[in-house]
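User: Let's play a game. I give you a shape written as C-alpha coordinates, and you guess the letters that built it. Ready? Here's round one.
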Protein backbone atom coordinates (compact mmCIF):
# COMPACT_ATOMS: atom_id res chain seq x y z
CA UNK A 1 0.00 0.00 0.00
CA UNK A 2 2.83 2.41 0.89
CA UNK A 3 4.50 1.67 -2.44
CA UNK A 4 1.26 2.37 -4.31
CA UNK A 5 0.75 5.68 -2.51
CA UNK A 6 4.38 6.71 -3.11
CA UNK A 7 4.06 5.91 -6.81
CA UNK A 8 0.80 7.84 -7.01
CA UNK A 9 2.36 10.89 -5.33
CA UNK A 10 5.36 10.87 -7.70
CA UNK A 11 3.03 10.58 -10.69
CA UNK A 12 0.93 13.52 -9.47
CA UNK A 13 3.97 15.77 -8.92
CA UNK A 14 5.42 14.80 -12.31
CA UNK A 15 2.11 15.47 -14.04
CA UNK A 16 1.76 18.89 -12.40
CA UNK A 17 5.33 19.87 -13.31
CA UNK A 18 4.91 18.69 -16.90
CA UNK A 19 1.62 20.56 -17.26
CA UNK A 20 3.22 23.76 -16.00
CA UNK A 21 6.23 23.41 -18.30
CA UNK A 22 4.14 22.75 -21.41
CA UNK A 23 1.60 25.48 -20.51
CA UNK A 24 -1.26 23.33 -21.73
CA UNK A 25 -4.86 24.43 -21.07
CA UNK A 26 -5.04 22.40 -17.86
CA UNK A 27 -4.72 23.81 -14.37
CA UNK A 28 -4.05 21.19 -11.69
CA UNK A 29 -4.42 21.94 -7.98
CA UNK A 30 -3.74 19.64 -5.03
CA UNK A 31 -5.50 20.31 -1.74
CA UNK A 32 -6.57 18.50 1.41
CA UNK A 33 -5.93 18.50 5.12
CA UNK A 34 -4.15 16.59 7.84
CA UNK A 35 -6.44 16.10 10.82
CA UNK A 36 -6.08 14.44 14.21
CA UNK A 37 -8.95 13.68 16.59
CA UNK A 38 -8.74 12.54 20.20
CA UNK A 39 -12.04 11.65 21.85
CA UNK A 40 -13.42 9.90 24.92
CA UNK A 41 -16.88 8.34 25.33
CA UNK A 42 -18.39 7.75 28.76
CA UNK A 43 -20.48 4.81 27.44
CA UNK A 44 -20.05 2.15 24.76
CA UNK A 45 -21.69 3.52 21.62
CA UNK A 46 -22.58 2.78 18.02
CA UNK A 47 -20.19 4.56 15.65
CA UNK A 48 -19.07 4.46 12.02
CA UNK A 49 -15.88 5.15 10.05
CA UNK A 50 -13.27 4.07 12.58
CA UNK A 51 -15.23 5.68 15.42
CA UNK A 52 -15.15 9.17 13.90
CA UNK A 53 -18.89 9.27 13.14
CA UNK A 54 -20.84 9.10 16.40
CA UNK A 55 -24.35 7.62 16.19
CA UNK A 56 -25.90 6.79 19.58
CA UNK A 57 -25.25 5.21 23.01
CA UNK A 58 -25.87 1.47 23.28
CA UNK A 59 -28.57 -0.04 25.48
CA UNK A 60 -27.58 -2.08 28.50
CA UNK A 61 -26.09 -5.53 27.95
CA UNK A 62 -26.21 -7.49 31.20
CA UNK A 63 -23.84 -10.26 32.20
CA UNK A 64 -24.75 -13.23 34.41
CA UNK A 65 -24.37 -11.07 37.54
CA UNK A 66 -26.46 -8.19 36.25
CA UNK A 67 -23.58 -5.89 35.33
CA UNK A 68 -24.07 -3.63 32.31
CA UNK A 69 -21.20 -4.38 29.93
CA UNK A 70 -21.88 -1.20 27.94
CA UNK A 71 -21.50 1.01 31.02
CA UNK A 72 -17.81 1.47 30.29
CA UNK A 73 -15.79 4.40 28.93
CA UNK A 74 -13.42 4.29 25.96
CA UNK A 75 -11.09 6.60 24.04
CA UNK A 76 -9.40 6.83 20.66
CA UNK A 77 -6.86 8.96 18.79
CA UNK A 78 -7.17 8.88 15.02
CA UNK A 79 -5.83 10.62 11.92
CA UNK A 80 -7.34 8.35 9.25
CA UNK A 81 -9.85 11.03 8.21
CA UNK A 82 -6.98 13.09 6.75
CA UNK A 83 -7.59 13.54 3.04
CA UNK A 84 -6.25 14.91 -0.22
CA UNK A 85 -7.83 15.87 -3.51
CA UNK A 86 -6.89 16.84 -7.04
CA UNK A 87 -8.87 19.38 -9.05
CA UNK A 88 -8.30 19.87 -12.79
CA UNK A 89 -9.66 22.82 -14.75
CA UNK A 90 -9.48 21.91 -18.42
CA UNK A 91 -10.39 23.23 -21.84
CA UNK A 92 -13.95 24.08 -22.82
CA UNK A 93 -16.12 21.14 -23.86
CA UNK A 94 -19.26 21.63 -25.95
CA UNK A 95 -19.19 25.30 -25.07
CA UNK A 96 -18.93 24.61 -21.32
CA UNK A 97 -16.10 25.11 -18.84
CA UNK A 98 -14.80 21.69 -17.76
CA UNK A 99 -13.61 20.58 -14.33
CA UNK A 100 -12.62 17.19 -12.89
CA UNK A 101 -12.17 16.35 -9.22
CA UNK A 102 -11.06 13.31 -7.22
CA UNK A 103 -10.69 12.98 -3.44
CA UNK A 104 -9.88 10.20 -1.01
CA UNK A 105 -9.22 9.50 2.67
CA UNK A 106 -8.42 6.48 4.83
CA UNK A 107 -11.81 5.76 6.40
CA UNK A 108 -12.78 2.87 4.14
CA UNK A 109 -14.16 -0.39 5.48
CA UNK A 110 -11.67 -2.39 7.51
CA UNK A 111 -9.80 -5.15 5.74
CA UNK A 112 -7.61 -7.76 7.45
CA UNK A 113 -4.43 -6.92 5.52
CA UNK A 114 -4.26 -3.15 6.13
CA UNK A 115 -6.24 -2.35 9.27
CA UNK A 116 -4.86 1.19 9.49
CA UNK A 117 -4.64 2.05 5.78
CA UNK A 118 -8.16 1.73 4.38
CA UNK A 119 -8.01 4.09 1.43
CA UNK A 120 -11.41 4.95 -0.04
CA UNK A 121 -12.89 7.16 -2.71
CA UNK A 122 -14.86 10.16 -1.45
CA UNK A 123 -15.50 12.20 -4.58
CA UNK A 124 -14.80 11.57 -8.27
CA UNK A 125 -16.68 13.61 -10.84
CA UNK A 126 -16.56 15.58 -14.08
CA UNK A 127 -18.49 18.85 -14.18
CA UNK A 128 -19.47 20.99 -17.17
CA UNK A 129 -20.65 24.55 -16.59
CA UNK A 130 -22.48 26.58 -19.21
CA UNK A 131 -23.78 30.09 -18.56
CA UNK A 132 -27.00 28.90 -16.88
CA UNK A 133 -26.77 25.10 -16.94
CA UNK A 134 -24.45 22.67 -15.16
CA UNK A 135 -23.93 18.95 -15.65
CA UNK A 136 -22.12 16.63 -13.22
CA UNK A 137 -21.23 12.96 -13.77
CA UNK A 138 -19.65 10.92 -10.99
CA UNK A 139 -19.63 10.51 -7.22
CA UNK A 140 -20.59 13.57 -5.20
CA UNK A 141 -22.65 14.66 -2.20
CA UNK A 142 -26.18 13.28 -1.92
CA UNK A 143 -28.78 16.06 -2.41
CA UNK A 144 -29.67 15.87 1.31
CA UNK A 145 -26.13 16.99 2.15
CA UNK A 146 -26.27 20.63 1.14
CA UNK A 147 -22.77 22.08 0.97
CA UNK A 148 -24.03 25.60 1.63
CA UNK A 149 -25.63 24.63 4.95
CA UNK A 150 -24.18 22.20 7.48
CA UNK A 151 -22.80 22.49 11.01
CA UNK A 152 -19.04 23.17 11.30
CA UNK A 153 -18.60 20.76 14.19
CA UNK A 154 -15.21 19.88 15.65
CA UNK A 155 -16.05 16.20 15.18
CA UNK A 156 -16.22 14.82 11.66
CA UNK A 157 -19.95 14.05 11.47
CA UNK A 158 -21.44 17.55 10.85
CA UNK A 159 -24.44 16.53 12.96
CA UNK A 160 -25.07 12.94 11.85
CA UNK A 161 -27.52 11.20 12.42
CA UNK A 162 -29.69 14.34 12.58
CA UNK A 163 -28.00 15.63 9.44
CA UNK A 164 -27.57 13.33 6.41
CA UNK A 165 -24.13 12.05 5.41
CA UNK A 166 -23.72 10.39 2.02
CA UNK A 167 -21.91 10.50 -1.32
CA UNK A 168 -23.35 8.61 -4.30
CA UNK A 169 -22.61 8.06 -8.00
CA UNK A 170 -24.98 10.30 -9.94
CA UNK A 171 -26.03 12.28 -12.94
CA UNK A 172 -26.82 15.80 -11.73
CA UNK A 173 -28.30 18.58 -13.88
CA UNK A 174 -28.64 22.14 -12.58
CA UNK A 175 -30.38 25.15 -14.12
CA UNK A 176 -29.89 28.73 -12.94
CA UNK A 177 -33.34 30.37 -13.20
CA UNK A 178 -32.01 33.72 -11.98
CA UNK A 179 -28.96 35.06 -10.16
CA UNK A 180 -30.53 33.80 -6.89
CA UNK A 181 -32.54 30.69 -7.80
CA UNK A 182 -31.25 27.31 -8.98
CA UNK A 183 -33.15 24.06 -9.66
CA UNK A 184 -31.28 20.73 -9.67
CA UNK A 185 -32.32 17.22 -10.71
CA UNK A 186 -30.58 13.98 -9.67
CA UNK A 187 -30.43 10.35 -10.82
CA UNK A 188 -28.37 8.21 -8.42
CA UNK A 189 -27.10 4.75 -7.57
CA UNK A 190 -25.28 3.56 -4.43
CA UNK A 191 -21.62 2.83 -3.69
CA UNK A 192 -20.22 2.47 -0.14
CA UNK A 193 -23.22 4.17 1.52
CA UNK A 194 -25.76 1.33 1.34
CA UNK A 195 -29.19 0.62 2.77
CA UNK A 196 -28.76 -1.37 5.97
CA UNK A 197 -29.12 -5.11 5.36
CA UNK A 198 -29.69 -4.62 1.61
CA UNK A 199 -26.24 -4.48 -0.06
CA UNK A 200 -27.38 -4.88 -3.71
CA UNK A 201 -30.93 -3.61 -3.38
CA UNK A 202 -30.47 -0.38 -5.34
CA UNK A 203 -28.72 -1.97 -8.34
CA UNK A 204 -31.15 -4.89 -8.55
CA UNK A 205 -34.18 -2.58 -8.61
CA UNK A 206 -33.13 -1.21 -12.05
CA UNK A 207 -34.61 2.14 -10.98
CA UNK A 208 -32.21 4.93 -9.96
CA UNK A 209 -32.92 7.08 -6.93
CA UNK A 210 -34.49 10.35 -8.10
CA UNK A 211 -34.44 13.76 -6.42
CA UNK A 212 -35.34 17.36 -7.15
CA UNK A 213 -33.94 20.39 -5.33
CA UNK A 214 -34.48 24.14 -5.39
CA UNK A 215 -32.02 26.65 -3.89
CA UNK A 216 -32.31 30.35 -3.15
CA UNK A 217 -29.17 32.39 -2.38
CA UNK A 218 -28.69 36.04 -1.47
CA UNK A 219 -25.86 37.86 0.29
CA UNK A 220 -26.85 36.81 3.83
CA UNK A 221 -29.68 34.32 3.30
CA UNK A 222 -29.86 30.76 1.95
CA UNK A 223 -32.82 28.39 1.62
CA UNK A 224 -33.30 25.01 -0.02
CA UNK A 225 -36.09 22.47 -0.48
CA UNK A 226 -35.36 18.86 -1.44
CA UNK A 227 -37.52 15.85 -2.26
CA UNK A 228 -36.55 12.36 -3.39
CA UNK A 229 -37.78 8.82 -4.00
CA UNK A 230 -36.07 5.43 -4.34
CA UNK A 231 -37.03 1.85 -5.16
CA UNK A 232 -35.11 -1.12 -3.74
CA UNK A 233 -35.14 -4.83 -4.48
CA UNK A 234 -33.98 -6.30 -1.14
CA UNK A 235 -33.32 -9.82 -2.46
CA UNK A 236 -33.73 -11.99 -5.55
CA UNK A 237 -35.22 -14.87 -3.54
CA UNK A 238 -37.67 -14.52 -0.68
CA UNK A 239 -35.81 -14.97 2.65
CA UNK A 240 -38.74 -16.94 4.10
CA UNK A 241 -39.52 -19.32 1.20
CA UNK A 242 -36.33 -19.37 -0.89
CA UNK A 243 -38.45 -18.80 -4.01
CA UNK A 244 -37.61 -16.12 -6.59
CA UNK A 245 -39.47 -12.92 -5.77
CA UNK A 246 -40.43 -9.65 -7.45
CA UNK A 247 -40.93 -7.89 -4.09
CA UNK A 248 -39.60 -4.34 -3.85
CA UNK A 249 -39.36 -1.71 -1.12
CA UNK A 250 -39.66 2.05 -1.48
CA UNK A 251 -38.29 5.00 0.47
CA UNK A 252 -38.14 8.75 0.18
CA UNK A 253 -37.53 12.11 1.81
CA UNK A 254 -38.51 15.76 2.11
CA UNK A 255 -36.23 18.42 3.59
CA UNK A 256 -36.17 22.16 4.17
CA UNK A 257 -32.91 24.01 4.89
CA UNK A 258 -32.26 27.61 6.03
CA UNK A 259 -29.20 29.75 6.81
CA UNK A 260 -28.89 33.40 7.79
CA UNK A 261 -25.76 35.46 8.46
CA UNK A 262 -26.48 38.02 11.19
CA UNK A 263 -23.01 39.54 10.97
CA UNK A 264 -21.67 38.58 14.39
CA UNK A 265 -22.90 34.99 14.02
CA UNK A 266 -24.51 32.62 11.53
CA UNK A 267 -27.67 30.60 12.21
CA UNK A 268 -28.32 27.35 10.33
CA UNK A 269 -31.22 24.92 10.59
CA UNK A 270 -32.87 22.03 8.78
CA UNK A 271 -36.01 19.89 9.07
CA UNK A 272 -36.16 16.42 7.49
CA UNK A 273 -38.82 13.77 6.97
CA UNK A 274 -37.38 10.47 5.74
CA UNK A 275 -38.61 6.93 5.12
CA UNK A 276 -36.16 4.05 4.78
CA UNK A 277 -33.07 6.25 4.41
CA UNK A 278 -30.28 4.42 6.26
CA UNK A 279 -28.03 4.99 3.24
CA UNK A 280 -27.69 8.64 4.36
CA UNK A 281 -26.77 7.48 7.91
CA UNK A 282 -30.05 8.56 9.52
CA UNK A 283 -32.23 6.58 11.92
CA UNK A 284 -34.94 4.36 10.48
CA UNK A 285 -34.82 1.68 7.81
CA UNK A 286 -37.23 -1.12 6.93
CA UNK A 287 -39.48 -3.55 8.82
CA UNK A 288 -41.45 -6.61 7.69
CA UNK A 289 -45.09 -5.97 6.86
CA UNK A 290 -47.62 -7.85 8.97
CA UNK A 291 -49.38 -10.08 6.41
CA UNK A 292 -50.99 -13.52 6.22
CA UNK A 293 -48.71 -14.66 3.39
CA UNK A 294 -45.40 -16.50 3.91
CA UNK A 295 -43.52 -14.10 1.59
CA UNK A 296 -41.66 -11.19 3.15
CA UNK A 297 -42.88 -7.70 2.29
CA UNK A 298 -41.11 -4.54 3.46
CA UNK A 299 -42.40 -1.28 4.89
CA UNK A 300 -40.22 1.81 5.30
CA UNK A 301 -39.84 3.23 8.81
CA UNK A 302 -40.52 6.98 8.87
CA UNK A 303 -38.28 9.35 10.75
CA UNK A 304 -38.38 13.02 11.73
CA UNK A 305 -35.15 14.93 12.29
CA UNK A 306 -34.34 18.52 13.16
CA UNK A 307 -31.10 20.36 13.84
CA UNK A 308 -30.12 23.97 14.53
CA UNK A 309 -26.64 25.46 14.76
CA UNK A 310 -25.28 28.84 15.84
CA UNK A 311 -21.64 29.76 15.20
CA UNK A 312 -19.67 32.93 15.80
CA UNK A 313 -18.15 34.70 12.79
CA UNK A 314 -15.15 35.87 14.83
CA UNK A 315 -11.76 35.41 13.20
CA UNK A 316 -9.67 34.07 16.12
CA UNK A 317 -11.97 32.31 18.60
CA UNK A 318 -15.14 30.75 17.15
CA UNK A 319 -17.62 29.31 19.66
CA UNK A 320 -20.66 27.44 18.40
CA UNK A 321 -23.42 25.09 19.49
CA UNK A 322 -25.47 22.46 17.67
CA UNK A 323 -28.74 20.90 18.81
CA UNK A 324 -30.27 17.86 17.12
CA UNK A 325 -33.46 15.86 17.65
CA UNK A 326 -34.85 12.80 15.89
CA UNK A 327 -37.97 10.68 16.39
CA UNK A 328 -39.14 7.30 15.06
CA UNK A 329 -42.56 7.87 13.43
CA UNK A 330 -43.22 4.19 12.75
CA UNK A 331 -43.56 2.11 9.60
CA UNK A 332 -45.85 3.19 6.79
CA UNK A 333 -47.78 -0.09 7.13
CA UNK A 334 -48.32 -2.34 10.12
CA UNK A 335 -44.98 -4.10 10.47
CA UNK A 336 -42.64 -6.07 12.71
CA UNK A 337 -38.92 -5.24 13.02
CA UNK A 338 -36.48 -7.75 11.54
CA UNK A 339 -34.16 -8.54 14.46
CA UNK A 340 -31.02 -10.58 15.12
CA UNK A 341 -30.47 -13.07 17.94
CA UNK A 342 -29.99 -10.24 20.44
CA UNK A 343 -33.25 -8.57 19.48
CA UNK A 344 -31.51 -5.70 17.63
CA UNK A 345 -33.20 -4.61 14.37
CA UNK A 346 -31.04 -5.64 11.40
CA UNK A 347 -32.45 -3.56 8.52
CA UNK A 348 -32.26 -0.26 10.40
CA UNK A 349 -29.93 2.23 12.02
CA UNK A 350 -31.14 2.70 15.58
CA UNK A 351 -34.37 0.80 14.93
CA UNK A 352 -34.82 0.30 18.68
CA UNK A 353 -34.61 4.07 19.38
CA UNK A 354 -37.92 5.87 19.90
CA UNK A 355 -36.34 9.33 20.03
CA UNK A 356 -32.96 10.90 20.61
CA UNK A 357 -31.39 14.31 21.09
CA UNK A 358 -27.89 15.80 21.26
CA UNK A 359 -26.49 19.04 22.64
CA UNK A 360 -23.05 19.86 21.18
CA UNK A 361 -21.20 23.03 22.26
CA UNK A 362 -17.77 23.69 20.71
CA UNK A 363 -15.00 26.24 20.35
CA UNK A 364 -12.35 26.60 17.66
CA UNK A 365 -9.10 28.52 18.04
CA UNK A 366 -8.02 29.76 14.61
CA UNK A 367 -4.26 30.08 14.09
CA UNK A 368 -5.07 30.99 10.48
CA UNK A 369 -8.28 30.51 8.44
CA UNK A 370 -6.91 27.08 7.47
CA UNK A 371 -5.24 25.90 10.69
CA UNK A 372 -7.25 25.45 13.87
CA UNK A 373 -7.52 23.60 17.17
CA UNK A 374 -10.96 22.70 18.52
CA UNK A 375 -12.66 21.42 21.67
CA UNK A 376 -16.15 19.93 21.79
CA UNK A 377 -18.60 18.24 24.15
CA UNK A 378 -21.33 16.07 22.63
CA UNK A 379 -24.07 15.05 25.06
CA UNK A 380 -26.52 12.50 23.62
CA UNK A 381 -29.61 10.89 25.16
CA UNK A 382 -31.44 8.04 23.39
CA UNK A 383 -34.76 6.48 24.46
CA UNK A 384 -34.21 2.81 23.58
CA UNK A 385 -37.04 0.27 23.67
CA UNK A 386 -37.15 -3.47 24.22
CA UNK A 387 -40.55 -4.09 22.58
CA UNK A 388 -42.42 -2.66 19.58
CA UNK A 389 -45.96 -1.61 18.72
CA UNK A 390 -47.84 -2.64 15.57
CA UNK A 391 -45.96 -0.05 13.48
CA UNK A 392 -42.48 -1.06 14.71
CA UNK A 393 -42.16 1.93 17.06
CA UNK A 394 -40.03 1.03 20.12
CA UNK A 395 -41.93 0.87 23.41
CA UNK A 396 -41.01 0.27 27.07
CA UNK A 397 -38.13 2.69 26.53
CA UNK A 398 -35.30 3.60 28.84
CA UNK A 399 -32.98 6.60 28.46
CA UNK A 400 -29.27 6.00 27.88
CA UNK A 401 -26.78 8.86 27.69
CA UNK A 402 -23.22 9.39 26.56
CA UNK A 403 -20.79 12.28 26.68
CA UNK A 404 -18.14 12.45 23.98
CA UNK A 405 -15.29 14.86 24.64
CA UNK A 406 -13.26 15.71 21.54
CA UNK A 407 -10.04 17.62 20.88
CA UNK A 408 -9.06 18.07 17.26
CA UNK A 409 -6.55 19.85 15.05
CA UNK A 410 -6.73 20.52 11.30
CA UNK A 411 -4.01 21.71 8.94
CA UNK A 412 -5.54 22.52 5.56
CA UNK A 413 -3.42 22.99 2.45
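Assistant: Ready! My guess for every position:
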Amino acid sequence: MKKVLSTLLVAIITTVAFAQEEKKPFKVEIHGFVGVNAHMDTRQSATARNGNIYLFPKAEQLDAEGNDLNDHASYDIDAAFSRFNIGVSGPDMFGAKSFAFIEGDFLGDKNPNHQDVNFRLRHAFIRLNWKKTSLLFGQYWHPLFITENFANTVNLSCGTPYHPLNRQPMLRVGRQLSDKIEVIGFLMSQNDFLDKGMPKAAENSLIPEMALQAKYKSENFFAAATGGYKVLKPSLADPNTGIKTDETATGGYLAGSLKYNFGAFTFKTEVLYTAGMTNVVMLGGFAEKTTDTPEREYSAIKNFAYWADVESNAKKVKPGVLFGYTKNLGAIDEATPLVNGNGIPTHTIGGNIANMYSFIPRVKFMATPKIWFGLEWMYTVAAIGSTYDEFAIPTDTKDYSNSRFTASMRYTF
